[in-house]
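INTERNAL TRANSFER SHEET
From: sequence group
To: structure group
Subject: DUF4280 domain-containing protein

Please process the attached sequence and return the structure record in the designated field. Keep the field labels unchanged so the import script can parse them.
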Amino acid sequence: MGKPAATATAMLQCSFGIAPSTLVVLPLARVLVEGKPAAAITDMVPAVNIPPFGMCTSLANPTVAAATAAALGVLTPMPCIPATVAPWMNGATQTLVGGKPALTLGATCQCAYGGVIQILNPGAMKTLEG
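Return from structure group:
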């Protein structure tokens, strides 16, 4: 059975972020799902496709580590700047968007600072991708 398709307006959350974010899908592939641009696993570019998640709480983030050290070890969140380095994992196995696997609910993307970004709401409710 397929999973719901991720589109522009999909709601994202990072395990080290303190606020959700909204996936941005550029309409380059010209594929629409329920009237919105469909996402592919390569829609993972920081600040282009994945906006910040408010504040970051990962000590692997150099700015958080420095602020925490300056606060004598008290965790001090700093502004999130996503640092994704690889495509989303666990996308569709059969459906392609622009020649790349479609992005679906259940896919995850890794941040270089240790966070795992997941899709909370895929943006499409009726369309399932295989």
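Handover comment: The chain has a mean pLDDT of 95. Helices lie at 62-70.
Transfer complete.
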